[in-house]
Amino acid sequence: MDFSKMIDHTILKPEATKQDVEKLCREAVEYGFHSVCVNSSFVYYCAKLLKDSDVKVCTVVGFPLGAMSTAGKAAETLAAVEDGAEEIDMVIHVGMIKSRDWDYVKQDISSVVEAAGDKAIVKVILETCLLTDDEKEYACRICRESGAAFVKTSTGFSTDGAREDDVALMRRIVGSGMGVKASGGIRSPETALDMVRAGADRLGTSSGIAIVEGIKHE
After folding, report:
1. Angle at alpha carbon of residue 59, lines to 49 and 18, rounded to 5°
2. Partner of 183 for a Cys bridge, out of 80, 172, 179, 204, CB 3.0 to 4.6 A?
3. Dist CA 90 CA 104 (whole Å)
4. Where is the active site (predicted)?
């Protein structure tokens, strides 16, 4: 198993500088990570830095709350794709899930998928720590019906991150036809391996180097 190819090498903190992002890109190339995941203002910069590599550019939309308008999410997606993003990690509207307004939730996701078109895949961040198991299950089904490629656990900016039981639940609901990305609090080889065993096939982390080096020496 090539763990490097499962990792979205991530920097989303608000104080991240261009120098930090440049370092992220260099590391992603060196370690052969699947992608770099950055805020949308850095997409164009990363696309230029990575144009001669196999590393993809991933960005977040509606981040970190998911409560911006659907039109805003679609516009942010269009701009990111135009700048060179190949993967879009959008935050689901947790408040609309809690309101049981499933039509809104489906339209919100579908609009981002439509905006991404055939230029980028869409991962939907559920923010599992804020949802009941029933809400997680229904949200996974909506994501599948809306054409998303992945469901994802967390932003890393809420009350908790990835948990094995949530990853297992998500994998059970979406089956083998969608990806499951675990993110939030994945900092050690042991945690990374636990997430993969639970059903994750992508890991979002800022600790990718430590994870890969740790697994290599086990």
Report:
1. 45
2. 204
3. 15
4. 89 (proton donor/acceptor), 152 (schiff-base intermediate with acetaldehyde), 181 (proton donor/acceptor)
Per the CB < 8 A criterion, the answer to whether 108 and 92 are in contact is yes
Handedness of CA 32, 64, 22, 119 (dihedral sign): positive
Domain span at 151: 3-216
Structure tokens that stand for 151 in this block: 């469901």
Which residue is associated with the tokens 């979205």? 8
What CATH code is carried by the domain that includes residue 118? 3.20.20.70
Query: What is the set of active-site residues?
Result: 89, 152, 181
Contact by Cβ (8 Å): 140, 134:
no
Collapsing DSSP states into helix, strand and coil, what is residue 60? Answer: strand
Tens of pLDDT, residues 100-154: 999 999 999 999 999 999 999 999 999 999 999 999 999 999 999 999 999 999 9
pTM (whole model) above 0.70: yes
CA distance 127 to 183: 10
- What are the counts of helices (DSSP H) followed by strands (DSSP E) for the chain? 9, 8
Q: Are 12 and 38 in contact (CB under 8 A)?
A: yes
d(CA 89, CA 66) in angstroms, rounded, equals 11
Tell me how many domains the chain contains.
1
